[in-house]
Each structure stands twice: as C-alpha cells, then as structure tokens.
Amino acid sequence: MSPIFRKLTDVRHALLRLHKALLDDQRIAYEREHGVVTPAEFLQLIINEPSFDWLHRLSELVVQIDEQMEDTENILTADSAKVLLDQAKTLLTPAESGEGFAGAYFDAIQRNPEIAMLQGQIRKLISAPLSAQQQPADRAGK
Fold first, then answer.
1. So where are the chain's domains?
2. Alpha helices in the chain (DSSP H)
C-alpha cells in the first residue's frame, strides 16, 4: 500500500471513530431531552432530525474518501488525497461562535473528552508527514 493511501486509510478509520463518538454524544443529548429511543428510532433521528443534521457533513466526507479510494478509473493520487485531507482538516476546525458543523463540533468537544481526544489524534494524523505513517490503519490512534 502506498504511503498516501495508508495515510488516507488511517484518517478514514479515525473519522469513523469520531463519527461514532459524535453520534453517541448527540444521542445522549437527545435522550436527555426527549427520553430513550430504540435503535430503529435512533436511525430515523440520524436521517431526519434537525439536531443531527450537522453530522451529515462528516458522513459525506467519509463517503467521499471511500469513493475516491475505490475508484478504479481515476486512481487516487497524492494531489487528490491531499484535497481530501485538507477537506477533513477544514471540516474538523471547531468554532465557538460558528454555525452548523463548526459550532456543534466545538460544543461536542467541550462536552466530551473522548471527542476532544479524537480531534487531537485526527489533527496529528492529517498533519504528520507521510514517512511518519508507520502504524497499521486499524491500529492508528488507539
């Protein structure tokens, strides 16, 4: 596996861990206000509930990474991988007074130390030079 493909794979796995932590955090907040929901109800909330809308941007980024990594016609290049990594870095920039993802993400980081830790791990992965990507993709950031 090429170093850039490995790096993007590592970042993708870390984004998935972050996505799960954010979903769990958002679910706790929702259930505090509205009561416990079943897994099926939770899935519908993720899809349809406005308080979960901000998480769709992260889901879309992971899908975009998947599509580019699996595209057999347009092989992933270092430049196209850098674009994806830059998108991840930009998306994962929390803003205290921000709207949409940036503001909700800031609040989640303040509320949940696991999310703050994952934020730091992902920023480190994104910023690391390719030669520093030594860990297997499924072990990075653990």
1. 3-130
2. 3-34, 39-48, 56-70, 78-91, 100-111, 113-127
